[in-house]
Design brief:
about 120 residues; 6-stranded antiparallel beta sheet; alpha+beta; binds zinc ion
């Protein structure tokens, strides 16, 4: 995924700090480690990690891969999704941005899997 489409999809979640912004930017030089960047709220400058290296992540987290298989698309109601990227807006939980494998509808799920982090 490219930065522009990730920034567009981040607009689906409100900023956890100022709560009134859904606009984020990912500085291209904010790379923390391989596949990890920081997203900044355009309003309050709050930043949180964003993980784009989903391939090695799902490989090392079989429970996440299993969870993806059972995820239900809100549009076509079929199960099965692929992980596009994930963010960690607060310490309490991650948000997973996925794409339905059946109809290609993009949506997101809050993680209930934080025990694995
Ligand atoms: Zn904010
Ligand atoms: Zn679907």
């Amino acid at each position: 995924m490219d930065f522009e489409s990730i920034e567009r999809r981040l607009a689906d979640i409100p900023c956890p700090v100022c709560k009134n912004s859904t606009e984020y930017m990912i500085p291209r030089d904010s790379r923390v480690t391989d596949g990890e960047y920081k997203a900044f709220c355009k309003s309050c400058r709050y930043s949180f990690p964003i993980h784009m290296d989903v391939e090695s992540f799902t490989r090392s987290q079989p429970d996440v891969a299993y969870w993806m298989k059972g995820m239900r698309c809100p549009v076509c109601l079929k199960t099965g999704a692929t992980l596009d990227f994930r963010v960690q807006p607060s310490v309490r939980g991650a948000v997973y941005f996925v794409t339905c494998t059946a109809c290609q509808h993009p949506f997101f799920e809050k993680s209930s899997l934080e025990a694995f982090e």
